[in-house]
Design goal:
Blueprint: E1 2-6, E2 12-18, E3 21-27, H1 30-36, E4 50-55, E5 63-71, E6 74-77
Parallel strand pairs: 3-5
Antiparallel strand pairs: 1-2, 2-3, 4-5, 5-6
């Protein structure tokens, strides 16, 4: 679940709770989110979402870069050119 959101340039930052741990999830720049079909209200506090992407190399950090976001069963692909 999203606890907080700071959206904007150079990219958005979300604080999410997963398995009783807080994580920071980087999402796309405003234009990238819009192109994927995401609106700011969809990335607001209380929204349930699944994030797919890459974890930071430093495993001590709970940080990931989202490439795909699933909200209410719908996929939002931030990087459609990536597999």
């Amino acid at each position: 679940m999203i606890k907080s959101a700071q959206l904007g340039n150079p990219h958005g930052l979300l604080t999410v709770t997963a398995k009783n741990e807080d994580w920071t999830v980087e999402v796309g720049q405003p234009w990238r989110n819009e192109r994927a079909g995401l609106k700011d209200a969809m990335l607001a506090k209380g929204v349930e979402a699944t994030f797919q992407g890459h974890r930071a190399k430093d495993k001590k950090k709970r940080l990931m870069k989202a490439e795909r976001i699933i909200i209410a069963g719908k996929l939002y692909n931030l990087y459609p050119d990536r597999d």
